[in-house]
Amino acid sequence: MNLQMLLDTYRNNPRLFTLADRLTLATPQKIYCKNLNGSSPAFIVASIFQNEISSQLNHVIVCEDAESAAYFHNNLENITSALDLFYFPSSFKLRKNYQLLNSSHVMLRTETLMKWSTGGNKKIMVTHPEALFEKVVQPGIISGNIISIKAGDTIDVTGIMDKFVNYGFVRTDFVYEPGQFALRGGILDIYSFGNEKPYRIELFGNDVDSIRIFDPESQLSERKLLQVNIIPNVETQFDTKEKISLFDFLPENTVLWFDDLELTKERLLTQEEDLQIFLEVQENRTNIREEEEDKELKAQASADDFMPADSLDQALEKFHVVGFGHRTLPGHQFEIQFHTKEQPAFNRQFDFLIKDLKSWEQKGFALYLFAENPRQLERLHSIFEDLKAEIHFTPLPVSIHEGFIDEDLRIVCYTDHQ
Predict the structure, then answer these.
(1) What's the confidence (pLDDT) of residue 254?
(2) Taking each helix axis from N to C terminus, what angle separates 2-11 and 40-50, rounded to the nearest 10 degrees?
(3) Torsional sign, CA 27, 32, 33, 39
(4) Residue 204 pLDDT > 70, yes or no?
(5) CB count, 10 Å around CB of 233?
């Protein structure tokens, strides 16, 4: 409840109403949100996502790199509990290697593309430049290549396993990562690229008796399902001509948020140069050494599978674009000035922390302390009592990556790990 009250404070901020109004205009807008620090951009995105004025909009947040994208995703997940929130990483295991795939990343990308291709509720995607560089499968192609299995269906077991192989799945004794299936007696296990856990299909002859999700580590069933959709590996199973840039894939009612648009352009250019070098090296090699565990996780890369770096500006023309980083958004038509500061690093110096909090409290600021573990908040309360510091704060058992001070809303949001 306290967290929702904080989000309501943001949602009722006049600056947020101005931003939401701009995002509902028919003409694509380029807006720069100036002076956002710490995790405050996540609160801005969350507030716009929940705002009734802009309720029909999807959002794609492009962070500087994979790590900052993961933190931003976690921030949004923790403060909104949004179900239609997706992390969209690069497919590859290693930088500068455009062949070895990371199966868990392929799963995340596949799940994201599948959910976005079906329309429905508004959604949020958090990504980074390396992930944007890869083209994606057209929405209609994804929906046309889903294998649906329902409880009570009669299936051709041999035929469906052949289809799994054609879709890039590998038969194993036990499934433990996306892209695998196993048949033991009357139990068919399949780890779809579109779900975070595998499915267990119990067969009675050729009849589907039951379907369950199970834990790949413990092999224990978790919950029963009436139907499952098996998704192929979207990174390897479709021709280049069936792929488009992510910007062509996104619906037009999508707002693009950039931490640093210029840096995104620079990283796309770097990716393009690295790809060219990689393809030249591959062309000159006759034997490519393969590690056993990577045999089923290889993509046949070509330049046409990736987005040309110089096409970004044109791709952005049909979207609202919002900049929220320290570097200004090039060519922005409208600027919204915020007044936020980063949380100081206290490094367990509680006297320093108490002095700082008291100074903000005396200025009439509301204090919010965030911690993933509720016991840590209790510990902070006990420390304040032991040091006879009368500080009135709102404890929030939620993790945010970086604390901040918002002078416009007169609030302090500190996180325990800083």
Answers:
(1) 95
(2) 80
(3) positive
(4) yes
(5) 25
pLDDT tens across 161-182, in order?
A: 998 988 888 999 999 888 899 9
Higher pLDDT, 328 or 283: 328
Number of neighbouring beta carbons within 10 Å of residue 99: 17
Using CB atoms within 10 A of its CB, is residue 418 exposed (0-12), middle (13-18) or buried (19+)? middle
Res 299: pLDDT: 67
Query: 361-387: buried (b, 16+ CB within 10 Å) or exposed (e) per residue?
Result: beeebbbbbbbeeeebbeebeeebeee
Give the per-residue pLDDT at 292: 45
Q: Counting Cβ atoms within 10 Å, is residue 345 exposed (0-12), middle (13-18) or buried (19+)?
A: exposed
Q: Is the pTM value of this prediction over 0.70?
A: yes
Q: What is the pLDDT of residue 347?
A: 82
The pLDDT of residue 177: 87
Conformational region of residue 302, where left means phi above 0, alpha means psi within -120 to 50, and beta covers everything else: beta
Q: What is the DSSP track for 95-147? A: TT-SSBB-HHHHHHHHHHHHHHHT--S--EEEE-HHHHHB-EE-HHHHHTTPE
47 alpha-carbon distance from chain centroid: 17
Asked if residue 294 has pLDDT above 50, the reply is no
The DSSP line for 233-286 is -TTTSS-GGGEE-HHHHS-SSEEEEES-HHHHHHHHHHHHHHHHHHHHHHHT-S
Alpha-carbon distances of 223 from 83, 107, 200, 210, 409, rounded to whole Å: 18, 20, 10, 11, 44
Q: How many residues does the chain have?
A: 418
What mean pLDDT comes out for the span 274-286? 83
Nearest to 258 by CA among 343, 332, 341: 332
Q: Which of 221, 161, 162 is nearest to 190 (CA)?
A: 161
Residue with tokens 């096409």: 311
**Rounded alpha-carbon distances, angstroms, from residue 297 to 88, 92, 121, 131:** 18, 9, 32, 17
String of b and e for 253-280 (b: at least 16 CB within 10 Å)? ebbbbbbbbebbbebbebbbebbeeeee
Q: Which helix (H) or strand (E) holds 39?
A: none
Distance CA 231, CA 143 (A): 9
What are the structure tokens assigned to 306, written together? Answer: 């990736």
From 148-162, 221-235, 277-291, 304-318, the region with the lowest mean pLDDT: 277-291
